[in-house]
Write a structure and sequence with these properties.
By secondary structure, the protein is of the alpha/beta class. Helix content is 43%, strand content 14%. Strands 1-10-9-8-7-6-5-2-3-4 form a 10-stranded mixed beta sheet, sandwiched between helices. Homotetramer.
Amino acid sequence: MKHTPLTAASLREHPLPLPQAGSKDARGRALVVAGSASVPGAALLAAVAALRAGAGRLRIATVARAAAGMGLMVPEAMVVGLPETADGAVDVAQAATSLRTLADGCDAVLIGPGMLGEAPTAALAVELLGADASFILDATALSELRARAGAVRARAGRAVVTPHAGEMARLLDRRREAVEADPLEAARAAAELLGSVVVMKGATTWIVEPQGGRWLYAGGGIGLATSGSGDVLAGLIVGLLARGLPPISAALWGVFLHGEAGRRLAGAIGPVGFLARELPGVVPELMRETMG
């Protein structure tokens, strides 16, 4: 099966919902479950990106010690502080019930950026998949997901996963070098394993759906290989899911907007040296231009 280049033209088959007058609830409710004591900024990057992608309402669930600061940094969001373990990770056992309640009230949920503890985070992801929402599983939520693949596959059609090569290698129980040698084949295997849309991140990005469709984005430039860039991508996708896009459309738009924001900043600032926090601010204009 041939692949489709991911361009502004190919996105016309996946139109964004048109902004209309009405309440913020009409643009969807997103929940970002992210961060730890050592990496609190991952939640911030993802959360701001979700808002820039157009989500109407935002909830952030992060470790308790970061919650007050997060509320000041993102005053547009409701912020919930979660119980912590001794090493500053979310205490999944104590937090699961409250997170399920939060997820039940949302249209889209992101789990994983900046979180610690691969097995507990993957278990939490599967627990929350029972909510009536779309999901994006990123970073720590992916590493121990292989043993829980059946639970993810049972919610087929509602999830996007966004691994880089190392995370994909652990997910598929392969060597990283094998994944890097054939990222498309790895993405296809993961889509089949999980029954989910897969965004295989790298110098070029493959987006694969379980039904066999595949798209290739040629990359937004070397400057996107910077700390926090993946958190922004995940935030964009959860914001688009919250707006009502199906998982494949949200993944395609998220990858495109993320990459094109990198291209634009590279032209304005330089090929390297721009920051992940600068990417979301470019997104609204890019959406307007791409939609025509």
